[in-house]
Amino acid sequence: MKRIFVEDVTGEIVTIGGRDANHLARSLRAKRGDKITAVDGAGNCAVLELIDFDKETIRARRAGDVGRVAVDKSIILADCLPKQNRFDNIIEKATELGVKKIEPLISDRTITRPNVLREKAKLERWNRIAKESAEQCARDTIPEIGKIRELLDWLNEITPLEDDTLLLFCWEQEQDTTVREVLNTCCDKNIIVLIGPEGGFSEREVAAIKSAGGISVTLGKRILKTDTAVISVLAMINYERM
């Protein structure tokens, strides 16, 4: 059953507009009587029956009770911006792998540094990608996309870490500590995963991350591209939490 995100599913009648209405009507050729699953930002979900179409919107009737989505321990991905448009792919895959929030960061060795106008356009595109990916993989929530910030500024914002939060950073110079070893001792905590840019973290950044309570982990013997590292570490975390 097609899943979409709407503002509110608690009313008897729900109006679907914009890209969602266009996608349902034109791409999926939805018709009156079809049913979809809708989820809102407050954590409610319901089955909707499509009842009326016009040029811009679709009206739907709630067909059943309102339910609540399940809430898991959260994973936040903090990723230093890679070159080109690889961050688009990172958002898509991180969404599929259950990340709650994605923080785009700029570090000492970050090459991509968008200006204010480009930043606004990128955030709009990233939020659209997150929404579409969440619908495609039948998620109950859309990942939040944070503003682009300097790595050290972001570290200052999140510290001191909450007692129920673990900060892992993938570091090519770490040879011993694995994701499994860390999660075996504290698998029930919320996790922040920090990934560096091409060229990795600088020495001052590694010192700052460790000072903030970050635990360095290895992803194996090979040096992975930043988007590959994201998929690898998130897959490991999901496996250990199954």
Written description of the protein model:
By secondary structure, the protein is α/β, with parallel strands linked by helices. Helices cover 34% and strands 26% of the residues. Strands 7, 8, 9, 10, 11, 12 and 13 form a seven-stranded parallel β-sheet that branches. Strands 1, 2, 3, 4, 5 and 6 form a six-stranded mixed β-sheet that branches. Helix 2 runs parallel beside helix 3, helix 2 packs parallel to helix 7 and helix 5 runs parallel beside helix 7. The longest helix is centred in the middle third of the chain and has 21 residues. The model has no long low-confidence stretch (mean pLDDT 91).
Given as residue ranges, the uncertain stretches (5+ residues, pLDDT < 50) are: none
E-strand count? 13
The amount of helix comes to 25-40%
What is the succession of H and E elements?
A: EEHEEEEEHEHEEHEHEHEH
The CATH class of the largest domain is identified as Alpha Beta
According to CATH, what is the topology of the largest domain? Alpha/beta knot
* Quaternary form: single chain
Q: Which radius of gyration do the C-alpha atoms yield? A: 20 Å
Gap between N and C termini: 25 Å
Q: What is the SS-derived class?
A: alpha/beta
